[in-house]
Amino acid sequence: MNGNHFDVIVIGVGSMGSSACYQLAKSGLKVLGLEQFNIPHEKGSHGGQSRIIRKAYFEHPDYVPLLERAYASWQELEEVTGEKVYHETGLLYIGLPDNPLITGVRQSASLYSIPVESLTVAELKKSYPVFSVPEEMDILFEQAAGLLLPEKIIPLYAALARQLGAEIHEGETLIDWQLEGDGVVVNTSKATYRADRLVLSAGAGMGRLLPVLNQHLTVTRQVMGWMTALDPAAFRKDAFPCWTLAEPDGHSIFYGFPALDDVDAGGPKGFKLAYHGHGEETSYDDTDRIPDAKDEQLLRDFINRYLPGTVAATSALKTCRYTNTPDEHFMLGHLPGYDGKVSVASCCSGHGFKFSSVVGEILRDLTLHGQTEMPVGFLGVERLI
Ligand SMILES: Cc1cc2nc3c(=O)[nH]c(=O)nc-3n(C[C@H](O)[C@H](O)[C@H](O)COP(=O)(O)OP(=O)(O)OC[C@H]3O[C@@H](n4cnc5c(N)ncnc54)[C@H](O)[C@@H]3O)c2cc1C
C-alpha cells in the first residue's frame, strides 16, 4: 500500500462530504477528502449563515426516522466539540389548510407523534405582532425546530476528521474517476489516487461527475436576503422563531430566520428570508452569483405582503444553488452498476443540510458494511436512472 492509496476517497468536502469524512475517519479508515475550493465556501450549496431543521416533515413522512437520528447526531457533534451548532427557535408553518405544507406537516406530526400546536391568526399576532397573515390561513408551530450553522459545522467536521487522521485537500478538483481492479482510480487537478471505495458528494457538481444522471438534475440559483428591522428587538432570536409560509398561489414558499446578530454565526446582520421555489435554472459552471434588483424586489414584495412596515433597509443579498432531482427527493445510496464500491449522497433539492449529520453516518455504513440500517430505500439512485 503506498501513500496515494486510501480505504476511501470522498469527493466534495461540503455539507455531506465533511460529515462523511468525519464518520469514516472515526471508524478507523484511511480517508482522503478532496474539495475544489476552501472549506467552507460560498460557491456551492452551503453558504448563507443558517439552515432550518424541523421534524414534522411536509415533504414526506419517510424522512422523519432520518431526522430523529440527525437531531441526535447534531447533539453528538456539539458534545464532541463543545461548540453550539443548533439553536432551537421553534418554527411556524403558515398556509392555506389544503396547501401541501400544512397537510404534510399534519400528516408527519400525526404519524410520528411530533408535538405541533395550532394557532389562530389572533394568537399569531399576539405572539409575533410583525406578521400580517390572512384569516383563512392555518398556522402550526413546532417547538423542537430551529436552525443550524453550516459555515461553522462544515469546518468542525473537517477538523475532527483531520484530527482522526484523514487527509483533506482543499483547492483540488476531481477531473475523472473509474473502476480499476478491486477499487477505484481518481484523477484530480494535482495527482492520481487509488482507493477501495469512493463517495461522491459533490453537490451541484454531481451531474458533471455522473453524466448518466446529468439529464435528470437541475441546478437553480436561489436568493437570500438579510433585512435591518425598524424594531430589531422584534426579530431577535429570543423573540422571533424560524418560519415558513406557503403563498395561496400554491407554489411559492418563503421562509425565514430570526436575526443572529448576537450569535457566533458569521454572515450579514439583520433577519434573513429566502425564496424556496424553483429559482432560475443555471449550470454548474455558471458564475452568476451576484444578486440584482429583481432578486431584492422578490423578497421586498413578500415583506410588503406578510411583514409590512418592518424593514429599514436591505442589509445584504446572496445567492446559493439547489441541485434538484425530478421528484425533489435526495439521491442517497450505492451507485448502480459499481458493485457497491461507489456511494452517492447529494442533490438534496434545497432541503438537505439538516440531514448531513446522519448522511455522514449512512455513507460510513454503506462504505464499511455495504448497507445501512437507516430506512433510505426511498432515496435510492436507481429510481433516477
Ligand atoms: C439558499 C439555500 C437555502 C437552503 N436552506 C436549507 C434549509 O433551511 N434547511 C436545509 O436542510 N437545507 C437547506 N438548503 C439545502 C442544503 O443547503 C443543501 O441540500 C446542502 O448544502 C447540499 O449539500 P451537498 O454536500 O450536496 O453540497 P455542498 O455543501 O455544496 O458540497 C458539495 C461540495 O463538493 C465540491 N465539489 C464539487 N465538484 C467537485 C469536484 N469535481 N472536485 C472536488 N470538489 C468538488 C463543492 O465545491 C462543494 O464544496 C438550502 C440550500 C440553499 C442553496
Describe this structure in words.
This protein is of the alpha+beta class and 385 residues long. The chain folds into two domains: 5-47 and 151-216 and 328-384, 3-Layer(bba) Sandwich (FAD/NAD(P)-binding domain); 96-146 and 218-324, D-Amino Acid Oxidase, Chain A, domain 2, CATH 3.30.9.10. Helices cover 26% and strands 29% of the residues. The protein contains nine helices and 20 strands. It has helices at 15-26, 64-81, 100-111, 121-127, 150-163, 206-209, 211-214, 293-306, 356-369, and strands spanning 5-11, 31-35, 51-53, 86-88, 91-95, 117-119, 138-142, 146-148, 167-170, 174-180, 183-188, 192-200, 218-229, 242-246, 253-256, 271-275, 280-282, 311-324, 331-334, 342-346. Strands 5, 6, 7, 13, 14, 15, 16, 17 and 18 form a nine-stranded mixed β-sheet that branches. Helix 1 packs parallel to helix 5. The longest helix is centred in the N-terminal third of the chain and has 18 residues, at 64-81. The chain binds flavin-adenine dinucleotide (FAD).
